[in-house]
Amino acid sequence: MLTYVLFALVVGSIYALLAQSLMLSWGLAGLVNLGLAGFFALGAYASATSTTWGHVPVPVGIALAVVAAAAAGFVVCVSTLRLRDDYLAIVTLGFAEVVRIVASNEVWLTGGTDGISGVPVLVPRSAGLGFHAGTLAIVAVAVAIVYALQRRLLLSPWGRALRAIREDQIVAAVAGKSVVRFKAEAFCLACAIAGLAGALYGHYTSYVAPDQFQPLVSIYIFLAVTAGGKARPAGPVVGAYALVAFLEATRFAGELIPGVSPVQAAALREILVGLGLLVVLGLRPEGLLPERSQKAPAP
Amino acid sequence: MEIVLQALANGIVSGSLLAVPALGFSAIFAVLRYPNFAIGSLATVGAYAAWSANTAFGAPVLVAIGAGAAVAGLTGIALEAVALDRLGRGGPLMKAIGSLAAAMILENVVRFGFGNDLHAFDLPLARDVMVGPVRVGPQQLAGLAVALAVMAAVWAFLSLTSLGRSMRAVADNPDLARLKGVSPRLVSLVTVFVGAALCGIGGTLVGLDASLDPLVGGRILLSVFAAAVVGGLDSIPGAVAGAFLIGIAEEFTVLALAPAYRLAVSFAVIFLVLSFRPAGILGRAAR
Questions:
Q1: CA–CA dist B110, A271 (Å, integer)
Q2: Angstrom distances, CA of residue B57 to CA of A138, A255, B187, B236
Q3: Side-chain half-sphere of A108: how many Cα atoms within 13 Å?
Q4: Which residues of A touch B (CB under 8 A)?
Q5: A226-239: buried (b, 16+ CB within 10 Å) or exposed (e) per residue?
Q6: For tag attachment on chain A, is the N or C end more exposed, with fewer CB atoms within 10 Å?
Q7: Closest CA to B221 of B25, B7, B14
Q8: Do residues A17 and A236 touch, judged by C-beta distance below 8 A?
Q9: Between these two residues, A176 and A223, which has the higher pLDDT value?
Q10: CA pair distance B72, B74, nearest whole angstrom
Q11: What is the tens place of the pLDDT at every residue in B37-94?
Q12: CA distance B158 to A269
């Protein structure tokens, strides 16, 4: 039972990192990343292949994952940042799909649909409970570091410029801010966080396969971020743990409803997640923790 | 040479099937100014409605297609009225995200009702026809004919009826249209109905060509986006031209790469068009 709780907490912390990524791109910069699952996958694969087959140390693999996801983020966003914001949504959705196709078909690079097993873990499995607790500690530290950085960023001139751009890019441009550059920086940084989440996930489950990175994951994270509050550093973290609690609770609830097959129970769960997102977006788009308005800095 | 002609023929057929939902997507984008990510699931809903009409009630295929269009159209209106319309206040991106959530709901409602198994329409078996060196299934020809007829009907609706002309007026300049007494709400709802119905027809045609599962519409989503992006997103003739281009490009990819890479072509096309010519072949400036 304790193992199960620790497992749920690790998954919750990984989702928290993904939610922090989305908070940075969507909440602060207004850039919708519908391909979050693709960057998550890219990070997982970059670290899993380089450590399992390339035998580089795990920290190097994680660093590679962060760099790869940021670089992919740059390529994906650079052509559409000058256009209407919904173009980026379409491109990112396509990107996640392509990552999954490549992961399923390029067997020499990714192991295909069988995936990669035997990915090195962060804490030896022989430690039993310590394996889960140790991994949880490492992932939680990552969440805390990102949280601290985001708090810092929000108060910095960079964070203010970003929010100014989100509210009105023409005014921001007139004020001398390079709109495209700020957006690209925010998007790449956000993708790097998603890549970090992917790498940590692969080193926890010790197994990486295309099925783990369904588009569904992106929608889960949108629900977590909208519910928690998308423009406050604490919002996505609270939202992610709440989401995992909800997902785990419904997992058991599905078994209790009589006459519902496992496929139907899974479908019901996804329907609830979709409905949840629509309801939160419609009734309380600012989430549980709304954005704080900041005082103008003293001259 | 035969291989190339065969790929071209297949591309024209699959392009015509893509053109129908692409028209629907572009119409909604042109009038309501948001990308609707639910079009794939609306196609699935239409396809299952048509399949139920065909297999459970024994409706002939053309009647079944009509039933699929009607159910998809009404589902689209229900989504817009209940959920998406109110999200519009937060901007087009909110509606886009809301439509993605709606897509997930619809897909899983279908999964809940019909399961993950493959289903096929009740069709008479027929032999393939040889046109010169090219082999074409009668089902493909029928799909092509229906798709072309639907495109002609859409064209007639947009240019000959007053409702169709109002739609074009709102797409062109909403403020001017309102001054002229066109009700934007009515036009929006009609557009959503027509657009979603077109998606339903597209999903049914794809289902007739192969088989049905809850992802039948979701699988063509990216290709439909690519067709619309090539056409310029809000251009009706552009969407048709884009669909044929994407259909043919996908079939030629299958000659060179694994069939799974079809969708990668769509992504590559979206990426290149937005990088170098965001207005597409027939769209307005995209900024």
A1: 10
A2: 59, 34, 33, 35
A3: 0
A4: 30, 32, 34, 79-80, 82-87, 89-91, 93-95, 97-98, 101-102, 104-105, 216, 219, 222, 261, 263-264, 266-268, 270-271, 273-275, 277-278, 281-282, 285
A5: bbbbbbbbebbbbb
A6: C
A7: B25
A8: no
A9: A223
A10: 6
A11: 999 999 999 999 999 999 999 889 999 999 999 999 999 999 999 989 888 888 888 9
A12: 41
Of B113, B27, B100, B130, which is closest to residue B71 (Cα–Cα)? B113
Residue A7 half-sphere exposure toward CB, CA atoms < 13 A: 7
What DSSP state is assigned to residue A233? Answer: T
Chain A residue whose CA is closest to B116:
A263
pLDDT at B12 over 50: yes
A76, amino acid identity: V
Beta bridge partners of B135: B130
Q: A87 to chain B: which residues are within 8 Å by CB? A: 274, 278, 286
- What is the three-class DSSP state of A285? coil
Mind giving me the DSSP string for A182-196? HHHHHHHHHHHHHHH
B108 touches chain A (CB under 8 A): yes
Q: Which amino acid is at A267?
A: A
Contact partners, residue A201, CB within 8 Å, separation at least 6 = A14, A40, A44, A212
Q: Hey, is A24 helix, strand or coil? A: helix
